[in-house]
């Protein structure tokens, strides 16, 4: 699949921002006043910035509001609703904390649930697709949620929780990659089912429909950079898991906390790039490119 | 509305005969011609006369080489367009309700005024039947020529999809696949019509007729029958007279 920068940035930064808002929501001793303002501002800039960047890949962004209508069947529509739910609830919660030093715990909990639901609905946009076997698993949702709350814990300075969650997220990432490498084969979709010609003999793509490229090939049969996938996986896991954990274990976590965060985010960006670049859509079979 | 109808009154669709398709691409051209001039946004081309041409097509013809265990490879031309699936995954993923499946005839359509061009429906389709038009930013797909098949301004014989009307080898058939007595359903039953990627669970309406098995003349030495052989046997085995002398003399040199 084509790794669109707008989608990679959206899912990484909104996931991080929503993870931070989640922790602020469940914190029984949440910050108040200007400290709270700073935390919530960071959370909102990341979450809203990510959501806005996701509209850049639309062909007709001016109609984006129509995406709220089909929540009954569409995960993309549900994501829109959950995002609004999270931002509105957390906004009210933050307003009371910042300006009135009042914490309404219930509001925080509801907001936190909406934050997690938003990340979950984002993950389901990908996990629901049978056409991309690598994504079509509950592990995709687990991975998105783990990365989001691990990043949020890191960003909100929860060192111990962050350490545990980083290891869980890194482990899930490893399992997701390893099982993902086999999922296309296991899906049962191959050249024979695609063409129905397997009963005659070995099927080989002879000529594509046109000599040039097309939308399908650019969008869903992306192959550039796959040969570096193994190296990029090492870089991703090193930056998102190993380096942050080492930095957090050093005696001065406050100094290295920022470095750990920067490293983690860079690692997640690489992992998200791979998430798209390595994903194989079954339509590639028709072009003999699987 | 992206909820799929529980049942459609009819299942209009295509039956494509892989045995008779000659891969001429006439259906590709007629499809592009009709659909760029009529319903919805035109099918744009990018850099059509330049170094890197591409464009939107609702119907594309692949060609596959199939190598049986013995005998020569077979070349099979493979037209592919929207299969108007009963369980269309492209419809349910649409966030705006632009994609829908009609209750009256099962045709899957896009209301282009509601399409935000997110591309998720193209991701959800295993067949590559949907293409985002790069000029309009909206999703394009086969409409089964919905503006032809019910169009009373056209002569009756033209009220079929453009691809079916134009096919010179009669490899494309149009009809109601929900009616077991229709000509297309009979054809599917008779020829063992098949679904593409049945494991994807899309329940495609369009069916593909597999190529008929090839005849097996001259496959082995024992079965070799050459009906022309007796006629082509040399009449004079040894030359006589002047030619015989010439032949012998030349051999000696």
Walk me through what this model shows.
- The complex is a heterodimer of chains A (290) and B (253).
- With 290 residues, chain A is mainly alpha-helical.
- Chain A has a single domain (5-184, 214-287), classed as Formate dehydrogenase/DMSO reductase fold.
- Chain A contains 10 helices and 1 strand; from the N terminus they run αααααααβααα.
- The longest helix of chain A is centred in the middle third of the chain and has 28 residues, at 159-186.
- The two termini of chain A are 12 Å apart.
- With 253 residues, chain B is an alpha+beta fold.
- Chain B has a single domain (12-209), classed as Alpha-Beta Plaits.
- In chain B, the strands form 5 sheets. Chain B has a 3-stranded mixed β-sheet.
- Chain B is elongated, with a radius of gyration of 26 Å.
- The chains are: A mainly alpha (290), B alpha+beta (253).
- At the A-B interface, helix 3, helix 7, strand 1 and helix 8 of A face strand 3, strand 4, strand 5, helix 2 and helix 3 of B.
Secondary-structure topology with pairs:
The complex is a heterodimer of chains A (290) and B (253).
Chain A (H helix, E strand, L loop, with lengths): L4 H22 L6 H22 L20 H26 L4 H23 L10 H18 L3 H28 L4 H5 L6 E6 L7 H6 L8 H21 L3 H25 L13
Helix pairs in contact in A: 1-2, 1-4, 1-5, 1-10, 2-3, 3-4, 4-5, 5-6, 5-10, 6-9, 9-10
Chain B lengths: L11 E6 L8 H12 L7 E2 L7 E2 L3 E9 L6 E8 L7 H4 L6 E3 L6 E3 L9 H5 L6 E2 L6 E2 L5 H4 L12 H5 L5 E5 L6 H9 L15 E3 L19 H4 L8 H12 L1
Parallel strand pairs in B: 1-11
Antiparallel strand pairs in B: 1-10, 2-3, 4-5, 6-7, 8-9
């Amino acid at each position: 699949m084509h790794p669109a920068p707008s989608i990679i940035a959206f899912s990484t930064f909104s996931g991080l921002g929503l993870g931070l808002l989640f922790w602020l929501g469940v914190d029984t001793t949440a910050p108040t006043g200007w400290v709270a303002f700073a935390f919530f501002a960071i959370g909102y800039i990341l979450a809203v910035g990510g959501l806005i960047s996701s509209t850049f890949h639309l062909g007709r962004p001016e109609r984006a509001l129509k995406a709220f209508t089909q929540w009954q069947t569409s995960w993309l529509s549900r994501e829109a609703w959950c995002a609004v739910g999270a931002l509105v609830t957390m906004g009210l919660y933050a307003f009371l904390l910042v300006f009135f030093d009042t914490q309404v715990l219930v509001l925080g909990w509801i907001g936190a649930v909406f934050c997690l639901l938003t990340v979950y609905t984002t993950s389901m946009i990908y996990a629901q697709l049978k056409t991309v076997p690598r994504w079509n698993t509950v592990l995709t949702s687990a991975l998105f949620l783990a990365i989001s709350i691990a990043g949020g814990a890191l960003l909100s300075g929860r060192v111990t929780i962050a350490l545990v969650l980083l290891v869980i997220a890194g482990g899930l990432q490893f399992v997701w990659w390893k099982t993902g490498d086999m999922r296309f084969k296991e899906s049962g979709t191959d050249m024979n089912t695609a063409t129905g010609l397997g009963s005659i003999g070995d099927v080989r793509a002879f000529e594509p429909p046109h000599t040039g490229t097309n939308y399908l090939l650019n969008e869903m049969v992306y192959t550039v950079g796959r040969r570096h996938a193994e190296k990029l996986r090492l870089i991703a896991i090193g930056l998102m898991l190993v380096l942050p954990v080492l930095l957090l274990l050093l005696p001065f976590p406050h100094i290295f906390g920022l470095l750990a965060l920067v490293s983690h985010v860079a690692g997640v960006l690489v992992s998200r790039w791979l998430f798209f670049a390595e994903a194989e859509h079954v339509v590639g079979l028709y072009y003999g490119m699987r | 509305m992206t909820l799929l109808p529980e049942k459609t009154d009819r299942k209009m669709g295509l039956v494509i005969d892989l045995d008779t398709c000659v891969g001429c691409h006439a259906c590709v051209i007629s499809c592009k011609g009709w659909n760029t001039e009529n319903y919805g946004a035109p099918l744009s081309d990018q850099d059509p006369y330049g170094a890197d041409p591409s464009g939107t097509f609702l119907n594309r013809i692949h060609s596959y080489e199939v190598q049986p265990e013995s005998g020569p490879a077979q070349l099979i031309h493979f037209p592919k367009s929207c299969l108007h699936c009963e369980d269309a995954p492209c419809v349910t993923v649409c966030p705006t309700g632009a994609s829908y499946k009609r209750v009256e005839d099962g045709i899957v359509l896009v209301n282009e005024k509601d399409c935000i061009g997110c591309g998720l429906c193209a991701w959800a389709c295993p067949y590559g039947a949907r293409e985002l038009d790069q000029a309009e930013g909206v999703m394009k797909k086969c409409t089964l020529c919905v503006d032809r098949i019910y169009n009373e301004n056209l002569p009756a014989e033209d009220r079929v999809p453009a691809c079916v009307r134009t096919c010179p080898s009669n490899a494309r058939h149009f009809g109601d696949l929900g009616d077991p007595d229709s000509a297309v359903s009979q054809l599917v039953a008779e020829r063992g019509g098949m679904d593409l990627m049945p494991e994807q669970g899309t329940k495609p309406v369009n069916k593909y007729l597999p190529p008929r098995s090839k005849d097996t003349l001259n496959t082995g030495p024992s079965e070799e029958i050459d009906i022309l052989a007796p006629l082509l046997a040399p009449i004079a085995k040894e030359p006589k007279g002047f030619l015989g002398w010439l032949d012998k003399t030349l051999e000696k040199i």
